[in-house]
Structure prediction request, 271 residues.
Amino acid sequence: MTPSPQNYIHGYDAREGARLQAQAWSVLDLLHADTRFSHGARVLEVGCGTGAQTTTLARNNPDAHIVAFDRSESSLAQARDRVAAARLPNVQFHLADLFELPFEERSFDDIFVCFVLEHLEDPLWALRVLRTLLKPGGTITVFEGDHGSAYFHPQSAHADAAIACQVALQQRAGGNAMIGRQLYPLLTSAGFRDVQVSPRMVYVDGSRPELIEAFTRRTFTAMIEGVRDRAIASGLSTPAEFDRGIDDLYRTAASDGVFCYTFFKGIGRES
Prediction:
């Protein structure tokens, strides 16, 4: 979901749009390889944003009906264009807020939530709201990252400090950049049963040039670099310290560098 400006610290410019597309490509197999819905299923995509995940959902599940919503008209316009360009007829878009949804209770077979909970002040409440929309036996799929899982070679305290700035800024905005590790207790506390959570690691080394560019450079490092001004203005870092951290993150994208990051995929079922 496109969060309100005060909660989304990454911004809404073209650079962020490009980063989201690189991220979608990077996690394509990790997220979507085992995400399939039954024939005729009515699937709610929560906070589709610019449609970075919508097209893959619709393409991989041609016999399902995808209902995608977002609170941002501009993001929805991009999502509509993306789906139209891909000629995917099984998607319907709605302009809506997660906590004021126009859908009837028990009206969806499955729910898909990707990179949304991390930006919410009360993710447990959000999950409880979404649970009311599921039919008995319906499933929810949640995918979130965890910045505490980032490690790399060459090791760098400066890079760790730059990442910590992003984590702190997101926390101040009401979010949680390390929510991935909490998916199991969140889903169980929300009342879902048969909850299963699996770690999905992105591992990047010199033998994977596509991931070096798409994930290490254009997804993760670009995200940290994007909070530079806020980190400095808030007193979390100095220009020299932050820039050293970004340089060291880019250093991990060299041919002898290694970068690791873990996403978490949680699946639960409504009683």
Summary: The chain has one domain: 14-269. Residues 209-225 form the longest helix (17 residues). The domain at 14-269 is CATH 3.40.50.150 (Rossmann fold).
